[in-house]
Amino acid sequence: MTSGIKRITTPLADDVTGSLKAGEKVLLSGFVYTARDAAHKRFAETLEAGGELPFDIRGQVIYYCGPAPAPPGKVIGSCGPTTSSRMDVYAPRLISLGLKGMIGKGKRSEGVRGALKEHKAVYLGATGGAGALLARTVVAADVIAYEDLGPEAVIRLEVKDMPLFVINDTHDGDLYQDGMERYKK
Amino acid sequence: MREIHVDEIVSVVERLFIDANIELSDNMYGAIRDAIEKENSPVGKEVLRELLKNADTAREEHMPICQDTGLAVTFLEMGQDVHILGGDLTEAVSEGVRRAYRNGYLRKSCCHPFSRKNTGDNTPPIIHTKIVPGDRMRITVLPKGGGSENYGEVRMLMPAEGKEGVKAFVLEMVRKGGPNPCPPITVGVGIGGNFETSALLSKEALMVPVGARHDDEELAAMEREMLNEINETGIGPQGYGGTVTALDVHIKMAPCHLASLPVAVNIQCHAHRIREALL
């Protein structure tokens, strides 16, 4: 399954997100921004106070990830996805501001799935617990905000061919739902 | 009476946590490899192949298998004829954890429940101590991630619910977790004792190797039945659909009160990290 896999590059345009189908594997390259629980809380507080997010979110992809520290000589430590549902309360607002993709693991709320369809954004799955493999796809890592949050800081990662599965596409496709239906007895 | 110095405990705990987080055990590696054959879904097979490649990468790059290197769960089996020299045993385990998470570049995931402020060194560890006969000391570490731990529960069943009630509860928890606890999972089921004993039994059940069966035939049959039912849910590797949702189910059981049937379910992700040493 390594040849003929679709390659996509950030920032993501609507024609790219619209072409993705739940269940297909993609290799993503470009910049993605890590943010998890604490960073999302700050995003929300910043927006509430009328401030600006630490990066221009339009067309971008957020990776729900709190990496392990980088060992000497490495760009980053192990960096797999965390459970996305904890960010469900924050995601629709960010999607409405132009966020085009989220990378994580686990089911999303109806509110998030609705926002994906409305704004042509996608939810992509990185394999949970495959943190060492995913770290190999990271070319560069720069903390761009909230350094005080340690593993929860916002890090801009430059990735090359990050292996992902499309979980929720812009057409109501849902890999979790479809996959389970197909194999349940 | 045998003497063990705290310095030895510090260095053993450090080594165990680093090794557990970086090198997937042969038992788990073999279980995932075998699961590729058993899995019917092409996407599921692809995910399982990624997991093996991940384990190889972690070993080669000397990097944790998963970035969630867990809370530092530590089991101490203390021979009653062991005498600890040179300091405080709990502090020795803490210091071992501190060094492992610093020197092994493991993520510190321990924080204040409300402020969420990180303790900074992954302490305090969670230590379970059992006094046993003899003059040896067994240290087992089980760094446990949050994603799978969040799908555990203790429930006080009605005694009349019996075996079927236990099985239904386990299946309910697996379905509730779905993709979130990173399947293929292993499931620890603690039955009996009281409220807190059942929870501890469920964690101890996770320490049984994948493929081993309970020596009580009735419980062994229950383990097999639950494993089959879980694998018929269709959840599959990473929840993307498939026939391997769990690698195994293990039960630990103890007598309980006349009025009670406590049951605890503790779910473990595929990155099941465990190491032990006998001093």
Structure description:
The complex is a heterodimer of chains A (185) and B (279). With 185 residues, chain A is α/β, with parallel strands linked by helices. Helices cover 26% and strands 26% of the residues of chain A. With 279 residues, chain B is an alpha/beta fold. Chain B folds into two domains: 2-20 and 65-144, Dihydrodipicolinate Reductase, domain 2, CATH 3.30.360; 147-272, no CATH class. Chain B starts with a strand and ends with a strand. In chain B, 50% of the residues are buried. The interface between A and B is large, with 47 and 51 residues.
Number of helical elements of chain B? 8
The number of E-state strands of chain A comes to: 7
Largest interface: A-B, 47 and 51 residues
Distance from first to last alpha carbon of chain A: 27 Å
Low-confidence stretches of chain A: none
User: What is the domain tally of chain B?
Assistant: 2
Oligomer: heterodimer
The secondary-structure element order of chain A is: EHEHEHEHEHEEH
Give the % helix of chain B. 25-40%
Widest sheet: strand ordering of chain A: 2-3-4-5-7
Strand content of chain B: 15-25%
Task: Report the strand count of chain B.
Answer: 10
**CATH class of chain A, anyone?**
Alpha Beta
Rg on CA atoms of chain B, Å = 19 Å
Number of domains of chain A: 1
Annotated CATH topology of chain A: fumarase
How much beta of chain A, percentage-wise?
Answer: 25-35%
Structural class of chain A: alpha/beta
Helix content of chain A: 25-40%
What is this structure's SSE topology?
The complex is a heterodimer of chains A (185) and B (279).
Chain A: E1 6-9, H1 14-19, E2 25-34, H2 37-48, E3 61-63, H3 91-96, E4 101-104, H4 110-119, E5 122-125, H5 131-135, E6 138-145, E7 154-168, H6 175-183
Parallel strand pairs in A: 1-2, 2-3, 3-4, 4-5
Antiparallel strand pairs in A: 2-7, 5-7, 6-7
Chain B: E1 2-5, H1 6-22, H2 26-38, H3 42-61, E2 71-79, E3 82-85, H4 89-103, E4 126-132, E5 137-144, H5 146-149, E6 153-157, H6 162-177, E7 185-193, H7 195-205, H8 217-231, E8 246-256, E9 261-268, E10 275-278
Parallel strand pairs in B: 1-3, 2-4, 7-8
Antiparallel strand pairs in B: 2-5, 5-10, 6-9, 7-9
